[in-house]
From TrEMBL:
Residues 422-518 form the SWIRM domain. This is Transcriptional adapter 2. One of its GO terms (molecular function) is transcription coactivator activity. SUPFAM superfamilies: Homeodomain-like (SSF46689), RING/U-box (SSF57850). Residues 21-79 form the ZZ-type domain. The keyword Metal-binding applies. It comes from Rhizoctonia solani. One of its GO terms (biological process) is regulation of transcription by RNA polymerase II. One of its GO terms (cellular component) is nucleus. Residues 418-428 have a biased composition (Low complexity). It is found in: Nucleus.
Length: 525
């Protein structure tokens, strides 16, 4: 016999008869015999063989079955025998399921029947078998007048309704097992939802050695004393003998000179207040432990992997900002705290954007196209500033390189190459400094130079201060090449700034580094 449990979730056409539960197939041709007559072998050791009438007439012998074995015909018992809405086939499957699955396993029996729920199976067995007057047998002297077609239609509709209810029922939830994700939080036991080291883990140290004497406060002095029991009470005698025997057994190896136990003394008022204060402190620590545990479990803080994935999506500034807000989480619910964090992060985003727009307006930028061009040029300047020390290191590594070429001639070639490449580029448009900060601190000549070189007045003032301080420190002996090393910007911009400061008398040089001499030297560079 080939049997299997059909799933009630599989859809079937409405024209076909719906069946769920245990199914029977022919062991020879594998045809479905669930709703048809089948021939069942009755020989010992071969009771599980089922054949369709065609294979039985042809003398098929699957497995150990022989054609001369005894047999019995199993028909279609889809008619009521005990109650009006239970068929005989369902009654047989009920008894078969109880013998296979055990008494009380109603869910497994209902799954085996396939057309009933666990509640219906339990109710039917209780009413027809347990409450029967002929218990353990049901009452069989019943005559039921039921229309066969109506009975089959009700059964079909019941199966369809059962299938629909199973579709709407949510699937089994995955148990909360000790997966690797939860073990990333050290000391957490997911199955017990507890921690090996709780918050305020040392709270019990306050009261572990706490003992009370005779308490006379809080109504203790009004407690009645123990009444003396009569000497002839046999139970007391037995108890005393038992206690003495246990005491002798425990203290058999003890010394005879043991000191007697000191009787309890009355508890003083100050000592009582101190111990009660310790108990209050212990209770407060327990409340803090319960609150901390509830926050961790309710907000899913043990799911370390999910938290890390969410933090990776945020910037460093946002992560630092959220860490500052975490102490406020215990003052709000989980949803309120998430809304608060989202709102504050959005506020920070707006502030950063407003700051960028204000910076663009300070730079004289009024359109987004100019802002994009400004950002590209700013990134290029930052990249050149980072690459400047590397290029300078290669250019001044040796004063006399191999091959007899002097360092001065090589610097001259590099300067000519840079000058030729700079001349081939299209000059940038002058920078609009109408709203620039510290513009009033520059002379007209300096303002014109800043606009031509596209340098902000604030930056120009910083460069000017650096060159003036260095020139004074060296006593006026500051050359153009040395000025380029002090200011890490484009060498041509540094040269023009140096020339302007020398020409206007801001840089007072010594005669040996006069402007004409240094200019000639600049040409040789």
């Amino acid at each position: 016999m080939t049997t299997k449990v059909r799933s009630p979730e599989k859809s079937a056409p409405e024209s076909e008869e719906v069946h769920v539960g245990e199914a029977y197939n022919c062991d020879a041709c594998n045809v479905d015999l669930t709703r048809n007559v089948r021939i069942k072998c009755a020989a010992v050791g071969c009771e599980e063989v089922d054949l369709c009438p065609t294979c039985f007439c042809a003398g098929k012998e699957p497995d150990q079955h022989k054609a001369w074995h005894d047999y019995r015909v199993v028909g279609r018992h889809s008619y009521p025998i005990l109650v009006e809405d239970w068929g005989a086939d369902e009654e047989l499957q009920l008894l078969d399921g109880l013998s296979k699955c055990g008494m009380g396993n109603w869910s497994a029996v209902a799954e085996l029947i396939g057309t009933r729920t666990a509640e219906e199976v339990e109710q039917h067995y209780t009413e027809c078998y347990i409450n029967s007057l002929d218990w353990p047998l049901p009452r069989l002297e019943r005559e039921l007048d039921v229309d066969y077609e109506a009975f089959q239609e009700r059964k079909k509709q019941r199966i369809i309704n059962l299938r629909e209810s199973l579709k709407k029922k949510p699937g089994p939830t995955q148990p909360f097992v000790s997966g690797p994700t939860n073990h990333e939080v050290g000391g957490f036991m997911p199955g017990r939802r507890e921690f090996e080291h709780e918050a305020e883990n040392e709270a019990e140290d306050l009261v572990k050695d706490l003992e009370f004497g005779i308490v006379l406060d809080h109504g203790g002095d009004q407690q009645p004393d123990d009444e003396e029991k009569p000497e002839g009470d046999s139970m007391d005698v037995d108890v005393e003998v038992k206690v003495e025997n246990e005491s002798d057994t425990k203290n058999s190896n003890a010394d005879d000179d043991d000191e007697p136990q000191i009787p309890a003394v009355p508890e003083s008022s100050d000592s009582m207040q101190l111990k009660l204060a310790l108990l209050d402190m212990y209770n407060e620590k327990l409340d803090a432990r319960i609150e901390a545990k509830a926050i961790v479990l309710e907000r899913g803080l043990t799911d370390h992997k999910r938290i890390q994935q969410a933090e990776r999506k945020r910037s460093k500034e946002d992560r630092e900002f959220i860490n500052k807000l975490k102490p406020l989480a215990r003052l709000q619910t989980s949803d309120d705290f998430e809304n608060l964090v989202a709102g504050l992060l959005y506020e920070n985003t707006l502030k950063r954007r407003i700051s960028e727009l204000q910076h663009y307006r300070t730079m004289g930028i009024t359109t987004f196209t100019e802002a994009e061009r400004y950002d590209r040029e700013r990134l290029a300047r930052d990249r050149d500033r980072l690459m400047g020390p590397i290029r300078n290191g290669f250019g001044h590594r040796s004063s006399v390189p191999p091959g007899g070429e002097s360092g001065q001639s090589r610097v001259k070639d590099e300067s000519n190459l840079a000058r030729s490449s700079a001349g081939s580029r299209r000059p940038a448009a002058p920078l609009n400094l109408a709203n620039a900060q510290s513009l009033h601190l520059l002379t007209p000549a300096e303002q014109t130079l800043c606009a031509a070189l596209r340098i902000l007045p604030v930056h120009f003032l910083g460069i000017k201060e650096t060159l003036v301080r260095e020139c004074v420190r060296r006593g006026g002996r500051l050359r153009r090449r040395e000025a380029r090393e002090l200011v890490r910007i484009d060498v041509h911009k540094t040269g023009q700034i140096w020339d302007l400061l020398v020409r206007t008398g801001v840089l007072k040089l010594t005669p040996d580094v006069a402007p004409a001499t240094d200019t000639a030297a600049a040409g040789s560079e």
